[in-house]
Specification:
The N and C termini lie far apart (about 60 Å). The chain contains nine helices and 27 strands. It is globular and about 65 Å long. The protein has about 425 residues and is of the alpha/beta class. The longest helix has 20 residues, at about 300-320. It folds into three domains: about 1-115 and about 255-325, FAD/NAD(P)-binding domain (3-Layer(bba) Sandwich); about 120-250, FAD/NAD(P)-binding domain (3-Layer(bba) Sandwich), CATH 3.50.50.60; about 325-415, Immunoglobulin-like (Sandwich).
Length: about 425
């Protein structure tokens, strides 16, 4: 039996395992389905990681290597090339590996850190033929940065998420011609710095309120048709543009890899599509914690690290401290302007000095006020000069404020004229 099994060896799983070890756990297992630790960071060779956590600019592999080095200084056991198939309510973890075969390991606590996956063409139902040359941006990134293949030479990118923006630059640097980046929303879904560094610096046009309405080609993509969309996001007839290209990259959103979570009977949040969690990242199943992109999709890996360290420490506390029975739980709700909040529940008795709250807005807002209300009573205000859906927001609620709060807290946005 293991004290803790961490499912996923990416940045979230590494940070959680290291944190649990630092807090005193000594029987820890990381299960990773890939052949090496590091997760998605291994194919993210661009810089921009670690500015908050390490106070320096690193590439994805460099950031991952820092935590792999930290892990090597512990006694944490790692199983690579091993897929977790099921988690039971008794915290039995069913897994199958190339060298170990089918195994069932018992854990006293579990951390879910499986990350997220990309939405595909089928998920957004683009009409047209089904030729070669349609890739998700992450798949193209792996082909270029890890496998050494160039997926195409004339490229259109649908979606302006961070991976799509970064691949616009990467394909350009590899000699491809990126004809356009197309976004169905009236704003970009990526970080502002990526819009500047990946599109504007390379004169790649960004078409907002546009989408791909047809894919043409028999054996290989030959053309894509792009149309403007109205406020209802439906194509406007007569606005079609035809791009002669051989490749279409899709950067149309990420979804938490939550099949294991769902199979285990853990409550999911329909807003984040990840697990519902408490202030310490514990899920609805006692002793099971979720962190990183499997909980909600982050924009910065530094946030993933901080959140996962909290989950690892909480798993250790769960095993090493007497069980606490709280009678009071505060439900966190999203009000106008807010898409979701994490955590979804806060137990004030478990908060030491303060509790961090992450959320995303559903539109671009200029001078604004983040308003936290208990019932109809405002209890906290935070000013922001700029808010955007592509950038995750963070506020901190003091313990004293939580003690005074009612059964619900609502986070909303109010623009200041």
């Amino acid at each position: 039996m293991y004290d803790l099994i961490v499912i996923g060896g990416g940045p979230a799983g590494l940070a959680a395992a290291c944190s649990a070890w630092d807090k005193g756990l000594r029987s820890i297992l990381i299960v990773e389905r890939d052949q090496e630790l590091g997760g998605i960071l291994n194919q993210c060779i661009h810089s921009g990681f670690g500015l908050q956590y390490f106070k320096e600019e690193l590439t994805g592999p460099e950031y991952a290597a820092r935590f792999v080095d930290l892990l090597s200084q512990t006694g944490v056991e790692v199983r690579l090339d091993t897929m977790v198939l099921d988690i039971t309510p008794q915290r039995e973890v069913h897994m199958v590996g190339k060298t170990t075969g089918y195994r069932v390991e018992q854990a006293r606590a579990i951390v879910l850190a499986m990350g997220c996956r990309e939405r595909t063409r089928g998920a957004i139902s683009i009409p047209g033929t089904r030729p070669a040359g349609v890739f998700t941006a992450g798949a193209a990134q792996r082909y270029v940065n890890v496998e050494g293949y160039l997926p195409g030479k004339r490229v259109v990118i649908l979606g302006s998420g961070d991976i799509g923006l970064i691949m616009a630059r990467r394909m350009t640097l590899e000699g491809a011609k990126v004809l356009a980046c197309v976004e169905v929303m009236p704003y970009s879904g990526g970080l502002n710095r990526n819009i500047v560094q990946c599109l504007q610096d390379f004169d790649i046009p960004l078409y907002l309120s546009h989408t791909v309405t047809d894919i043409r080609g028999k054996d290989r993509v030959e053309q894509v048709v792009v149309s403007q969309v109205g406020p209802d996001r439906k194509p406007i007839p007569g606005t079609e543009m035809i791009f002669d290209c051989d490749t279409l990259l899709l950067s149309v959103g990420l979804l938490p890899e939550n099949e294991l979570t769902q199979q285990a009977g853990i409550a999911l949040d329909p807003r984040t599509r990840g697990a519902v969690v408490y202030e310490n990242m514990e899920t609805s199943m006692p002793g099971v914690f979720a962190c990183g992109n499997v909980c909600h999709v982050h924009d910065l890996v530094d946030y993933v690290t901080a959140e996962s360290q909290r989950a690892g420490a909480a798993a250790a506390a769960y095993l090493m401290e007497d069980a606490k029975h709280e009678s009071r739980v505060i439900e966190i709700q999203n009000g106008p302007g807010v898409t979701y909040t994490v955590p979804q529940h806060i137990r004030p008795q478990r908060v030491d000095k303060s509790c961090g709250l992450f959320f995303r807005v559903n539109r671009i807002c200029k001078d604004s006020e983040i308003l936290v209300t208990s019932g109809d009573v405002p209890i906290a205000r935070f000013k922001r000069e700029h808010l955007a859906p592509g950038e995750m927001e963070h506020i901190t609620l003091p313990r004293a404020l939580l003690d005074k709060a009612g059964p619900t807290l609502t986070v909303s946005i109010r623009e200041v004229n």
